[in-house]
Design a protein that fits this description.
206 residues, alpha/beta, Dihydrofolate Reductase, subunit A, 9-stranded mixed beta sheet, 7 helices, 11 strands, 28% helix, globular
Length: 206
């Protein structure tokens, strides 16, 4: 049976998930946005950032998101930004399907991560990701434009937003371009923590 299709992102209070320029990734604002996740033990171990880190509900959420994911889908812009920063053992440890016009052979990395480049659209990428994921879930990793494409195509079942106490002022908005008249949401639950508030939504066609 096919698993759930979901996305999970950190978002600023004014609705942004990333700076405009890939060169600004790892800058002060983005680090503040992701501050809650970089503190967690599971995240640090997965990215080989060293020992230590916090345990608790935030750490559990990071681990649960990783463990439920059997394959990921992402856009070319996110891949291009990450290709320069991910280590030889990227944090996915599953197949990743990149939606792109570029024709490229699969890029095999350490730890079970292989990037597959899909040239025939988001639905094809999702079908391949579902096949690869088996009975686990498919995560739409990003970026914002790719997430919106899947939302507008009614291909997302649920999502998690970690709302961080930071303002960007500009950047990439999570829901820029969403066809709001076609998307209905149900709040499933909200979990506050010292550095973020976790919001979970189920997605339905309106």
């Amino acid at each position: 049976m096919a698993g759930t299709v979901f996305f999970s992102v950190s978002m600023s209070l004014d609705g942004f998930i990333a700076p405009d320029s890939p060169e600004e990734l790892m800058g002060q604002q983005w680090m503040e946005l992701q501050h809650w996740v970089f503190r967690q033990r599971f995240f640090r171990e997965n990215l080989k950032l060293g020992t230590g880190g916090e345990e608790g509900r935030d750490n559990d959420i990071v681990r649960e998101t990783f463990e439920r994911t059997g394959a990921s889908v992402m856009g070319k812009r996110m891949f291009d930004a990450g290709e320069q920063m991910w280590p030889e053992d990227p944090p996915f440890h599953t197949p990743v399907f990149v939606v792109t016009h570029e024709k490229r052979a699969p890029w095999v990395r350490q730890g079970g991560t292989t990037f597959h480049f899909v040239n025939d659209g988001i639905e094809s990428a999702l079908r391949q990701a579902r096949d690869a994921a088996g009975d686990r879930d498919v995560r739409v990793s990003g970026g914002g434009e790719t997430i919106v494409q899947y939302l507008n195509a009614a291909l997302v079942d649920e999502f998690h937003v970690a709302l961080s106490p930071v303002l960007f002022g500009s950047g990439i908005r999570l829901f820029r371009g969403v066809e709001a008249g076609r998307v209905a949401l149900d709040l499933v639950r909200a979990e506050p923590s010292p550095k973020t508030t976790h919001l979970y939504y189920a997605v339905h066609a309106r």
